[in-house]
Amino acid sequence: GAGVSQSPSNKVTEKGKDVELRCDPISGHTALYWYRQSLGQGLEFLIYFQGNSAPDKSGLPSDRFSAERTGGSVSTLTIQRTQQEDSAVYLCASSVGAFSSYNSPLHFGNGTRLTVT
Amino acid sequence: QKEVEQNSGPLSVPEGAIASLNCTYSDRGSQSFFWYRQYSGKSPELIMSIYSNGDKEDGRFTAQLNKASQYVSLLIRDSQPSDSATYLCAVGGSNYKLTFGKGTLLTVNP
C-alpha cells in the first residue's frame, strides 16, 4: 500500500508569508506526528495526534505554528508569518498506535523542504 | 530535558569491517529504543528496535541495550558502501514521544 505522503515536497516562501504543509498518513494509522529537521540537527518533535484525543502541541516552537487533523486522517501544519529560522525539512510520520507499543514503528514521509527567503 | 547523545562523526570504516555506533540517553524511564537510517536527502527508515537489555540481531545488524548504563549501540557487520548514511538513535519513554539524537554519519569506503 501507499506510504506516508507529504506535499509539497519543496516550498520557497518569502518572509512574513503563511504556508500550509500537508500530510496524508498510511491508511488505518491512528497516530500522526510532525517533526522538524534543521540542517545538521536531529529531529525536533512538534505535535502528535492520536485518534480523536486532544493533540499534544507541546513541541510547537511558537504560536505562529498550528496543526490540525481532519477526520482522523489528513493533517495540515500551518506556519504563519514565516521567519528565516523556520527553514527546515518538516517530516510527518504515522504509526498503527502509540510507537511505544511493539510492532508499531513510525513510518516517515519524504518531508517538505521549506525555505524562507 | 530528555536528551539523546550521539557522536556526530563522521565514522569512516573500510568495506567488510564492523561499524560500531553508540548512543547514550538521559531519561532512566525510557522503555523503547530505535535505530533509524537516513540517506542524504531522504526520510528516516527504521532498521532496528530493542526493548530489553541484551543483544538483538537482524541480519548484519545487532542492537545492544544496557539500561543500567543508559547506553544503546548498533553494530553493522560486513559493512557495505550502501550502508553509508546517517544513523539516528531514538528513545521513547512511557508516552508516545520519540526523542532523536542528532545522528552519526557513517562512511563505508570501498
Structure write-up:
The complex is a heterodimer of chains A (117) and B (110). Chain A is mainly β. Chain A is built from no helices and 10 strands. In chain A, the strands form 2 sheets. In chain A, strands 2, 4, 5, 8, 9 and 10 form a 6-stranded mixed sheet that branches. In chain A, strands 1-3-7-6 form a 4-stranded antiparallel sheet, with no helix packed on it. Chain B is mostly beta strands and 110 residues long. Chain B contains no helices and 11 strands. In chain B, the strands form 2 sheets. In chain B, strands 2, 4, 5, 9, 10 and 11 form a 6-stranded mixed sheet that branches. At the A-B interface, β4, β5 and β9 of A face β5, β9 and β10 of B.
Give the N-to-C terminal Cα separation of chain B: 40 Å
User: In percent, how helical is the residue content of chain B?
Assistant: under 10%
Overall pLDDT confidence of chain B? 92
Q: Based on the structure, what is the oligomeric state of the protein chains?
A: heterodimer
Q: What is the H/E order of chain B?
A: EEEEEEEEEEE
Helix % of chain A is under 10%
**Over all CA atoms, what is the radius of gyration of chain B?**
13 Å
Q: Any idea what the radius of gyration of chain A is?
A: 14 Å
* Mean pLDDT metric of chain A: 90
* Outline type of chain B: globular
Strand tally of chain A is: 10
Of all chain pairs, the largest interface belongs to: A-B, 23 and 25 residues
Beta content of chain B comes to: over 45%
Number of strand elements of chain B: 11
* Main beta sheet of chain B: 6 strands, mixed
Backbone structural class of chain B: mainly beta
In short:
The complex is a heterodimer of chains A (117) and B (110). Chain A is mainly beta and 117 residues long.
Question: Which key features would you list for this structure?
Answer:
heterodimer, A: 117 residues, mainly beta, six-stranded mixed sheet, four-stranded antiparallel sheet, 10 strands, 0% helix, globular, B: mainly beta, five-stranded antiparallel sheet
